[in-house]
Amino acid sequence: MGIRAALAVHPDTGRGAAARIAGTVADRLRTGVDRLELLGTASPSSLPEGLDALVVLGGDGAVHHAVQFCAATGTPLGLVPAGTGNDLARGLGVPLDPMRAVDAVLGALRERRHRSVDLGHVDGTWFATVLCTGFDAAVNARAARLTWPPGPHRYDLAVLAELAAFRARPVTLTADTEHLALDATLIAIGNTSCYGAGMRICPGADPGDGLFDITVVGHATRADLLRIMPGLRHGRHLRHPAVRTLRAREVRIEATGWPLCADGEMLSARTVTARCEPGALTVLG
């Protein structure tokens, strides 16, 4: 029967970048597959059965929806980054240049190269990169509402806006058998290392080790946050005395009134239990 693949294109991704290159990406994919189906989205309800691969042209939001389908079916996922963040691609070593990424997908299809990576699971939802709550989730929510500036600078602007109002709050955190009750500013549970277009919040996270890396920022003033945030690009925030790290397979967070997001997508739950599921996602490459 040959290789049957689908290309899911989210045309608004990257301020229209995905739409502009969709035709070129599709043409190149057709050189390596026998049947290619073009899709407007990658939600589980919209995808056909019997696929040999699902390729997503888009950013982390698009990939998040595709992961829900691939984790449930075992369908291999191919990534062609075209968003503003592309943090899963970074975490998996996928080329950030879309054409190089397409070539990598074609090579993996041709050679039948698949690998299994871990996913997080929370409240019926899979996540591939970072689940966060507190200050960083509030920043993510604000950044999603902004239309300017483009790219990672939008996240930087959202950080400045949130600094004015955010306060540490009481949190109860259970990481496997370790139990913490503290005033915290943010908690990030990393399956991979980055969020916010390359901010290395959990720099040691490995999506193949069966464990989350957890970064906790305790009580922090505005001045503390202004010192911590610039170091996120390079993982230097771990040096600050308000920051501590943990590793665990299961994490429970109880907090009141905090926003929560996974893979940059806002979630509605407030008390959450996240579990790392080893090898839950098959990726091309």
Automatic annotation (TrEMBL):
Keyword Lipid biosynthesis assigned: yes
InterPro entries: ATP-NAD_kinase_N (IPR017438), Diacylglycerol_kinase_cat_dom (IPR001206), Lipid_Phosphate_FormReg (IPR050187), NAD/diacylglycerol_kinase_sf (IPR016064), YegS/DAGK_C (IPR045540)
EC number: 2.7.1.107
Highest taxon of source: Bacteria
Gene3D superfamilies, per the entry: 2.60.200.40, Probable inorganic polyphosphate/atp-NAD kinase, domain 1
GO molecular function: ATP-dependent diacylglycerol kinase activity
Cofactor: Mg(2+)
Keyword terms of this UniProt record: ATP-binding, Kinase, Lipid biosynthesis, Lipid metabolism, Nucleotide-binding, Phospholipid biosynthesis, Phospholipid metabolism, Transferase
Keyword Cell membrane: no
Positions of the DAGKc domain: 36-126
PANTHER family: LIPID KINASE YEGS, SPHINGOSINE KINASE
Family named by the database record: Belongs to the diacylglycerol/lipid kinase family.
Full protein name: Diacylglycerol kinase (ATP)
Species this protein is from: Amycolatopsis thermophila
